[in-house]
Write a structure and sequence with these properties.
Blueprint (H helix, E strand, L loop, with lengths): L26 H8 L14 H5 L2 E5 L4 H12 L3 E6 L7 E2 L5 H15 L5 E4 L8 H25 L3 E6 L3 H4 L5 H8 L3 H8 L5 H17 L10 E8 L5 H8 L3 H7 L10 H11 L11 E4 L3 H5 L12 H9 L3
Parallel strand pairs: 1-2, 1-4, 2-3, 4-5, 5-6, 6-7
The structure holds nicotinamide-adenine-dinucleotide.
Nicotinamide-adenine-dinucleotide binds next to helix 3 and helix 10.
Length: 327
């Protein structure tokens, strides 16, 4: 049972004032802004404090480490948070995200508490387990099923945001097998586990690569950006949490983590990163879509300096086809 206070009844959203004259653009500008001829200009969000006070945001992995810091940060900002975590951890919604039935339970539990309308979702719960099935269940299916199950509620709350806790493991783990992530994206978990290999945290890196690709593949779609939901990922480096403590205690992983460069001279505490999530959940970040925000104190930029950004290797003909024929 949850030890947290029962959810308050949601206040109706304040009516938006009419757009100022400068925003009542002509037909040409309207088409440019919406990308569709003759369609209405997309409603612009208001940035007033009263509007913020009634925001409702769900967070998985809310009872420990980074998720706890994000929840506390949002609570302090007056957001009503709905925490999701394993049974017995004291979250509002208790569910085991490693199992399909648990994921369904999590979605239903959140929907009941938010009246079918969410302003934000943080899909944050994650594990770095030896058992690839468990790692894939929480880090990939536990994210994707939550995103898909709560997408209609996010669309009802649009403009809204979904932020996934990925990891810089996607960029700085050597030899992560792309084919393993593809297999996971195809729902072939057994094959993904086989292809991932047995090096320390291989399944973890594969699960995070798959989820990063899922974000990139879906964020700009009609169902996400087109429905007013800004979907992004955050890729932290090492953060002092129980997950890191467990990895540090591992004979193989511990020395590798300790040897990682620290361009900032220190390892992040969960509170150091919570504000990044708060920003990505805010209306100020609405135009950030489909991005993986690396927040690892400089490890990725130090090691992969010239690998990004990559110029777009595309012929002019293919580009023009994309621009005019493929919407
Ligand atoms: N700590 C790091 O160094 C680090 C680095 C990069 C990314 N991350 C990512 O940050 C996220 C949060 O991790 P953390 O470091 O705060 O770890 P943590 O262990 O402190 O917290 C993880 C939370 O997820 C919950 N959880 C685990 N399995 C679950 C399940 N089956 N169902 C529901 N909830 C479950 C746990 O109960 C816990 O509350 C994870 O996605 C992790 O991969 C962590």
């Amino acid at each position: 049972m949850s030890t947290r206070a029962p959810a308050k009844t949601r206040k109706p959203r304040a009516a938006r004032p009419a757009a100022p004259a400068s925003r009542r653009a002509g037909a040409a500008a309207k088409t440019l802004r919406t990308g569709r001829k003759g369609s209405a200009v997309v409603a612009r969000p208001q940035a007033d404090a009263a509007h913020d006070a009634e925001r409702v945001i769900a967070i998985s992995g809310s009872q420990s480490g980074l998720g706890l810091a994000i929840r506390q940060r949002l609570d302090a900002a007056g957001v009503r948070t709905i925490g999701i975590d394993l049974p017995g951890k004291g979250a509002d919604v208790e569910a085991d995200l490693s199992r399909a039935a648990g994921r369904e339970q999590a979605v239903q539990g959140v929907l009941e508490r938010c009246d079918g309308r969410l302003d934000g979702l943080v899909a944050n719960a994650g594990v770095d387990a030896k058992d690839a099935k468990l790692t894939f269940g929480v880090n990939f299916h536990g994210v994707v099923d939550l995103l898909e199950g709560l997408r209609p509620a996010l669309a009802a709350g649009a403009p809204s945001a979904a932020v996934v806790t990925v990891s810089h493991a996607v960029m700085v783990t050597p030899g992560v097998r792309s084919a393993a992530a593809d297999a996971l994206l195809d729902g072939r978990d057994g094959r993904a586990a086989l292809l991932a290999g047995r090096t320390p945290s291989a399944a973890y890196a594969v699960s995070k690569l798959a989820v990063a690709r899922w974000i990139r593949a879906h964020a700009a779609n009609a169902q996400w950006a087109g429905a007013g939901i800004s979907l992004n990922g955050v890729c932290p480096g090492a953060i002092v949490t129980p997950l890191l403590e467990r990895d540090l205690a591992d004979k193989l992983k511990g020395p590798l983590i300790r040897a990682m460069p620290k361009p900032l001279g220190e390892i992040a505490e969960p509170e150091d990163l919570a504000g990044i999530f708060e920003f990505l959940l805010s209306r100020d970040a609405r135009f950030v879509v489909g991005q993986l925000l690396v927040s690892d104190g400089g490890v990725e930029s130090q090691w992969r300096q010239a690998d990004w950004p990559q110029p777009w290797d595309i012929s002019l003909a293919r580009f023009l086809f994309k621009l005019f024929a493929q919407r």
